[in-house]
């Protein structure tokens, strides 16, 4: 066995590599990267138009995305997305910026979802007779200018009659007021 090890070390001497970064990418790693870029292309094509317009993309990439969006046939759409992925691979210097912009969009979505859940929780506590007073006090401290009497009246309707419409109206008022104050 030692003769075999010596043979490989002497005869098949690989060129020395200074660091791991100098190693060529494996075929598997290249395929993984290609799939990630294709997923990015799909995400760009499926992004809502309002969010897509906020992205700062190069003109050629933006036109490729628009063309892929406008392509109707299933096969042709798939082919166009692959073409977009190829264009993104060529412009790989722009990929970190695109990924960062999409991450910002995701973060805003997560924040919106968290805010939505907070409002739902506040509404649920307002509609629960046992937790009403603490939730009402919290609401008053958060939004002093909100129509507290109207919310209390709606909550009483939920407490006394199990009124689902009043529960939905409480949420609507909380959401609308929350959006008004966050826009300012």
Fraction in beta strands: under 5%
Please bin the fraction of helical residues: over 70%
- The structural class is mainly alpha
Shape, per Cα inertia axes: elongated
Tally the helices: what do you get?
A: 9
- The CATH architecture of the largest domain is Orthogonal Bundle
Radius of gyration over all CA atoms, rounded: 28 Å
List low-confidence stretches.
1-13
Number of domains: 2
Series of secondary-structure elements, N-terminal to C-terminal: HHHHHHHHH
Largest sheet: none
In CATH, what is the class of the largest domain? Mainly Alpha
The CATH topology name of the largest domain reads: Diphtheria Toxin Repressor, domain 2
Please provide the count of β strands: 0
> What's the N-to-C terminus distance?
77 Å
In round numbers, the mean pLDDT is 87
């Amino acid at each position: 066995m030692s003769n075999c090890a010596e043979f490989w070390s002497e005869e098949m001497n690989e060129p020395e590599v200074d660091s791991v970064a100098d190693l060529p990418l494996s075929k598997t790693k290249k395929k993984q990267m290609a799939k990630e870029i294709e997923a990015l292309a799909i995400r760009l094509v499926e992004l809502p138009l309002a969010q897509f317009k906020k992205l700062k993309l190069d003109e050629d990439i933006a036109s490729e995305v628009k063309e892929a969006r406008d392509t109707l046939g299933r096969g042709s759409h798939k082919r166009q997305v692959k073409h977009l992925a190829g264009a993104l691979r060529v412009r790989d210097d722009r990929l970190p910026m695109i990924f960062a912009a999409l991450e910002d969009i995701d973060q805003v979505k997560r924040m919106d979802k968290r805010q939505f859940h907070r409002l739902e929780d506040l509404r649920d506590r307002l509609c629960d007779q046992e937790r009403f007073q603490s939730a009402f006090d919290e609401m008053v401290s958060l939004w002093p200018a909100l129509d507290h009497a109207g919310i209390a009246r709606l909550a009483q309707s939920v407490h006394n009659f199990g009124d689902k419409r009043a529960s939905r109206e409480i949420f609507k008022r909380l959401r609308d007021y929350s959006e008004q104050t966050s826009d300012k």
